[in-house]
């Protein structure tokens, strides 16, 4: 016999989040077709659920379970597909509340931040959603969910990072469900919530969802694959599907009677769910054509049966009744919700707090980059060691300036995996209505800026003095400042490219290509005056490395002189300046070779700020357009 979960009755309830608890959810004629397929992925499907009920969507692989779940949760569908149907909530949420404000979807591969503990994950989810009367109520809810989902021994265990083990797959699954439940949905969708769990853990999860649905009048809809007998019996209703068509919708305990009416006797002492999957699957049938014909006939029988007809009439009555009142086919698109949610500033600071925890706990975020930059600084300082202000050092100084600025920005690619983890978390939480692109971009910029400044100071403190650049405090801090702007721009490029193409390999390649292009055009490889016209006017002037290299060169050479070797015939200076008769080279003579002039620092800083903000704004636009 399964263990009993702790009843939630003595704890803060989720229904307090909502002024108008739902009474029912009805979906009518939901379907999806692709133009290149002869048969629809999902044929018109109907269903009705009352508050407090929990529905299992059961069917073999390819039956349309996930498609239906995505349509019900109003998740993105293929661009070339055509969907029809309507979803009706009664009573309609007030003030044109967006659909994702009252619903949540727990995906099969739930995105979790690996550096957070179980307790922290739930706390941050609750803070982003809001709705709790006090911190005490929020903490009580967190602790209750930890107990209810069997995670008490793992409460202070991190989810797991690439360099530090954490939760098992089943524990992550339970945490993913709990992290959505704590946000206070009225409708909860789950894509195979028992996958990866053993029979006991799967039963506990579904049993707790059933109890919460009963107490708090939630509607729970879950696609499920091969549940145990005990778990299957916990569901109130069943939607049995095959090849995109409905074979049964109704109470779980009446499915046997339905098949008996078809003349099929359900064997005793077998897992009913497994037997049903066998009945609606053709994958292993010896005569596939006959099996497919049988399934078509069973689907038609269901549509014409008394239960199917009664369901269709109920669904049509509710749907048409709401349309008659002026309701829309898909009424929950935009608008404000009555639920008391945190403001933009509050959500942004919560994200900053969460990112800060991640940043110091997960070395992949900034730790590895700090080690890389420190190692690069030591290497650079010892290769270009104690360069003297002589003619022989001018080219090494120039090479060192290029190498330091260009490769530091190039190494920003190391931020790709950490940002992509944040991106996946953002997509999940945006779809669930917790926050949007503005909070994501602002919080990411705020948490990253101090670390990039630290990187700039650490790198400069090592290599600047070892290489013997202009030995003044003003010149040193000017170098740090430009290096800091360089890193800000480079990280902005990473954020933009990774948001545009959220694939680790592809975003890494795009960022590397972009930095390679900027390195080629920044003025070191080819002087600006001789640069190809196309590259000069299309790319050169918004190449952030150009402004960094130019101003670092001005910082080093504008106020410094370098000695020339002397011979019996006089001075041998490679750069002719007004100090040639003294066997000296004025640094401005070096700058003249590149066409660099002093007095434009303010303008260049403004351009750099525009480039930095431009990358962030571009990333913000991309995230705004993401579905």
UniProtKB/TrEMBL annotation:
Its main location: membrane. The keyword Transmembrane helix applies. This is P-loop containing nucleoside triphosphate hydrolase protein. InterPro entries: AAA+_ATPase (IPR003593), ABC2_TM (IPR013525), ABC_transporter-like_ATP-bd (IPR003439), ABC_transporter-like_CS (IPR017871), ABCG_dom (IPR043926), P-loop_NTPase (IPR027417), Plant_ABCG (IPR052215). The keyword Heme does not apply. The chain crosses the membrane at residues 363-385, 400-420, 441-467, 479-497, 504-521, 605-625. GO terms for cellular component: membrane. It comes from the Eukaryota. Keywords: ATP-binding, Hydrolase, Membrane, Nucleotide-binding, Transmembrane, Transmembrane helix, Transport. Residues 25-268 form the ABC transporter domain. It is found in: Membrane. Residues 322-339 have a biased composition (Basic and acidic residues). Gene3D superfamilies: P-loop containing nucleotide triphosphate hydrolases (3.40.50.300). The lineage of its organism: Eukaryota, Fungi, Dikarya, Ascomycota, Pezizomycotina. PROSITE patterns: ABC_TRANSPORTER_1, ABC_TRANSPORTER_2. Residues 315-339 are annotated as: Disordered.
């Amino acid at each position: 016999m399964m263990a009993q979960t702790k009843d939630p009755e003595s704890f803060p309830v989720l229904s307090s989040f909502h002024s108008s608890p739902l009474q029912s959810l009805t979906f009518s004629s939901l379907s999806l077709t692709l133009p290149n397929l002869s048969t629809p992925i999902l044929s018109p499907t109907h269903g009705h659920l009352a508050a407090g009920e929990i529905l299992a969507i059961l069917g073999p692989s390819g039956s349309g379970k996930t498609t239906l779940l995505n349509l019900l949760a109003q998740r993105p569908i293929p661009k070339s597909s055509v969907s029809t149907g309507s979803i009706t909530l009664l009573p309609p949420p007030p003030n044109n509340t967006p659909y994702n404000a009252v619903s949540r979807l727990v995906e099969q591969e739930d995105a979790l931040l690996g550096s957070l503990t179980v307790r922290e994950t739930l706390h941050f989810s609750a803070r982003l959603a809001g709705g709790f009367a006090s911190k005490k109520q929020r903490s009580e809810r967190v602790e209750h969910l930890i107990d209810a989902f069997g995670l008490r021994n793992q409460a202070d265990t991190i989810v797991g990072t690439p360099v530090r083990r954490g939760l098992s797959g089943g524990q992550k699954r339970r945490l993913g469900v709990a992290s959505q439940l704590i946000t206070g949905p009225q409708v909860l969708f789950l894509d195979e919530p028992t996958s990866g769990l053993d029979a006991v853990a799967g039963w506990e999860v579904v049993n707790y969802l059933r109890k919460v649905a009963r107490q708090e009048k939630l509607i729970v809809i879950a696609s499920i694959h091969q549940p145990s007998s005990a778990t299957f019996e916990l569901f109130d209703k069943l939607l049995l599907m095959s090849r995109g068509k409905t074979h049964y919708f109704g109470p779980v305990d009446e499915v046997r009677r339905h098949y008996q009416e078809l003349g099929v006797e359900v064997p005793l002492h077998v897992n009913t769910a497994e037997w049903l999957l066998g009945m609606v699957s053709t994958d292993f049938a010896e005569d596939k054509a006959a099996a497919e014909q049988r399934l078509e006939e069973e689907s038609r029988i269901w549509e014409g049966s008394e239960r199917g007809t009664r369901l269709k009439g109920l669904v049509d009555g509710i749907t048409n009744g709401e349309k008659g009142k002026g309701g829309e086919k898909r009424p929950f698109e935009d608008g404000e919700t009555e639920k008391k949610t945190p403001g933009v500033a509050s959500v942004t600071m919560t994200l900053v707090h969460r990112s800060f925890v991640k940043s110091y706990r997960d070395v992949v975020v900034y730790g590895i980059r700090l080690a890389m930059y420190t190692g690069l600084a030591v290497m650079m300082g010892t290769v270009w060691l104690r360069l003297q202000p002589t003619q022989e050092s001018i080219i090494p100084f120039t090479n060192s300036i290029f190498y330091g600025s260009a490769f530091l920005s190039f190494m920003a690619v190391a931020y790709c995996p950490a940002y992509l983890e944040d991106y996946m978390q953002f997509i999940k939480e945006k779809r669930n209505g917790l926050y949007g692109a503005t909070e994501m971009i602002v919080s990411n910029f705020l948490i990253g800026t101090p670390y990039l400044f630290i990187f700039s100071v650490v790198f400069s403190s090592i290599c600047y003095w070892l290489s013997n650049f202009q030995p003044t405090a003003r010149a040193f801090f000017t170098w740090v400042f430009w290096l800091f702007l360089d890193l800000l721009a480079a990280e902005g490029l990473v954020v933009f490219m990774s948001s545009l193409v959220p694939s680790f390999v592809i975003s890494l390649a795009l960022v590397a290509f972009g930095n390679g292009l900027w390195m080629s055009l920044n003025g070191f490889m080819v002087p600006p005056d001789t640069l190809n016209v196309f590259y000069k006017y299309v790319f050169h002037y918004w190449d952030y490395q150009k402004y960094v290299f130019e101003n670092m060169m001005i910082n080093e050479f504008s106020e410094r002189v370098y000695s020339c070797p002397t011979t019996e015939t006089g001075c041998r200076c490679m750069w002719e300046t007004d100090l040639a008769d003294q066997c000296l080279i004025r640094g401005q003579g070096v700058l003249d070779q590149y066409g660099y002039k002093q007095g434009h620092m303010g303008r260049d800083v403004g351009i750099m700020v525009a480039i930095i903000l431009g990358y962030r704004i571009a990333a913000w636009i991309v995230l705004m357009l993401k579905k």
